[in-house]
Structures are given as C-alpha cells and as structure tokens.
Amino acid sequence: MPDGAVIQRMFAEVAPGYDRANRALSFGIDVLWRRRTVRMVDARPGERGIDVCAGTGDLSFALQRAGATVLGADFCAPMLARACAKAGADPKAPRFLAADAMALPFPTASFDFATVAFGIRNVSDPLAALREMARVVRPGGRVVVLEFTKPRVPLLGAFYRCYFGKVLPRLGAWISGARNNAYQYLHDSVMAFPERQDFLALMAAAGLQRPRMSLLTGGIAAIYRGEVAG
Ligand SMILES: C[S@@+](CC[C@H](N)C(=O)[O-])C[C@H]1O[C@@H](n2cnc3c(N)ncnc32)[C@H](O)[C@@H]1O
User: Nearest C-alpha to atom 17 of ligand 1 is from which residue?
Assistant: First the structure.
C-alpha cells in the first residue's frame, strides 16, 4: 500500500514536468484514452461530476468540454496549482479543490458521476476511495476508472516489459526532471495493482453494480465502469 505522505511528496516533485512527460512517454496515446473515458462516462450537458486524483486536470478538462460541470479534486497542492493555471480565468473551465479521495468533503449523492484516471493505484486504500466515490454519486450515477493494465499479447507484452520496466524509468526522470524514482514507482505500482477481473471485484466490493471494463491499446490500459445502486 502506498503511503499517502510519500505519494504527495512524489507528485509535488513531478508536477512541473508531469504533462510534458505524460505526452512524450505515452506517445500522446493518453489523450485518446481520456477521450474514450469521457465517452464511457457518457457525460451529458448539465450533469455534475467529480474527478478525483485529478492531478493537473486533463480528464477534468475533457469531461467539462463534453458539457458537464466538473470539480477536480486532488491532495497534492503543486499538481492542483498546475490544473488551476491551465484553467486560468476561463469561466467554462473545471473548478479544482484540495481533497483526499478517501474522505471527499461532499454530502451523499452530490454528483451524477465520479471519475479517476491513473489515480486509484496511488491511493493508500483503493477500496475506501471507490466506496467514497460511490457514496458521493447519486443512485443510478456512474463511477468510471481509467488505469494501466498489463498486456497479455505476447509480442506487445515483450515490448511493454522492456519499455515500461527499463526505458521509461530513465526517460521519465529525464523528461520530467524528477529525481525521486517516480517512473520506477509507476512501473512497480502497475505490476502490483489488481487489474481486470480483480479490479472489477474491487468495484463490486465497493457496492458498484454491473461492473464492466473495456481494454485499450492491446490491454495496456483499461476503463472500468460501475453504477451506483438506484
Ligand atoms: C498519476 S496522477 C494522475 C493525474 C490525472 N488524473 C491524470 O490523468 O493525469 C495521480 C494523482 O493522484 C493523486 N492522489 C494520490 N492519492 C490521492 C489521495 N488519497 N487523494 C487525492 N489525490 C490523490 C496524486 O496527488 C496525483 O496527482
């Protein structure tokens, strides 16, 4: 289980180079994955959503562009500062606030949907965070998670193990300027995190109904979706 304070410090150091590193290291595919996530959320104009572990806000912005009113929440101030800088004074941009994913400062059933992109793996207690996301969403609303998975296609798997395990930790440190092994942690945390059926079981344990998943790019990532009992 990652320690919250350690994770906070790690992302604080990564924050200045985070977006640049994301685009470069994923060859821009992360933008397409977030777009697919927005489609899976099926956010409609007028709906209210919360994007937890929002970081620099990329998924929050993509959801807001789809017409929803989105609140991005994260517990790392320097990541949120980047998100707020990107929002500037645009009244159509999402709002951002400091909050722990495991203790969201909102009443039950405040939102139509909750999302988390590449964040649930970093939370000390992922089940508690899923339960909290389910709590703040209204009955019949959606909880959608975008997270890395491990590909099972042999050739892609070999390339992935080499790139993700050996190249990315060094390249990530170089591009982001972080000196704290954040990209080695990225690899190690993905390897250790429950995925596919195991993650769907976690969603079910959080009380989410009809949990299902859609694999992306040969199984390098997945979008999971569940509904709050209505
Ligand atoms: C890899 S970043 C993902 C950022 C963004 N969602 C994206 O798609 O680029 C993970 C984020 O999770 C946040 N985080 C980790 N644990 C958290 C927690 N318990 N509560 C709130 N934010 C948390 C970190 O501060 C970091 O900004």
Answer: 123
What would the pLDDT profile of 127-180 be if each residue is shown by its tens digit? 999 999 999 999 999 999 999 999 988 888 888 888 888 888 888 888 877 777
CA distances to 25, 41, 70, 228 from 38, in Å: 22, 5, 12, 18
78 Cβ below 6 A of ligand 1: no
Q: Distance from the CA of 153 to the center of ligand 1, in angstroms?
A: 29
- 51 Cα to the center of ligand 1, angstroms: 10
Q: Is 100 in the pocket of ligand 1 (CB under 6 A)?
A: yes
Query: What domains are there in the chain, each with its CATH number?
Result: 4-152+193-228 (3.40.50.150)
Per-residue pLDDT, 21: 86
| CA nearest ligand 1 atom 23, residue | 53
